[in-house]
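Lab notebook, bench 4. Still working through the backlog of constructs that have no structural model yet. Next entry is a single chain of 274 residues. Request: give me the structure tokens for it.
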Amino acid sequence: MGNRPLIVVKYGGNAMQSEQLKQSVVQSIGTLLQHAYRLVLVHGGGPFIGKILEQVNINSEFIGGHRKTSPEALKYIEMALKGEVNGSLVNLLNKAGHQAVGLSGKDGRMVIARKRFHVSHENGRELRHDLGQVGDVARIDTSLPILLLENGFIPVITCIASDEAGNDYNINADMFAGSLAGALKADHYLVLTDVDGLLKDINDPSSIIRKLPLEALDPLFGSVIKGGMIPKLESCRIALMNGARSARIINGTKPESLLNAVQSKESTGTEICL
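Model written out:
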């Protein structure tokens, strides 16, 4: 069992909002399992979080792109991630005949969080902004997901975790997934997004960058790497620096990309390499 290659998939965005696409992704996961891969699915759920906070009249304040999260908001965020999104994915996988287990970073103390501050610079001074219950990954204990994988289960993990004192935090799902892929020494870390990969020109699909060395990332931040691509590329860096063997950004709205990414690598997505 342990010799079968391990894939960690970061799942989210438009591919998560469409029921048809969710079904297609589940079918692709089934195909990967038939090809003797082991798989861990990690997810966030930004659109679902926004929806539930709107329903309970909690306004979202963003600081440097991060959602400031009160303890009250976190209660509903956890409800959306664990109750709605995680439960739905586990249900779909199990209906397809697999054995999926829904988890968060809190389960088995798998992920220990630390509080995150947003740092900005104004007039030469460094300012730290309190984001509330927003955290970073401090460390990971992989024994629970490994135990599940060894017994034929698919861990489906969302990005809530506690610190040493038991305070709960919401962690950026990309950062969470990249950290987990590194800790598990994944053979393949696949980040699903809604474009075919990293584009030099966002308006030109043919400008896709097929291969990008890790050291070439930094000069591209803010120009080629912008917006939602920033945490995705950062997560690839984290995964590779911590032990993952490969990292790739692929199009989650084309479920066949999952199988292609691990079998015919050259033509699928953007590979980040050491």
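Notes after review: The chain has a mean pLDDT of 92. The two ends are 27 Å apart (CA to CA). Flag for follow-up if needed.
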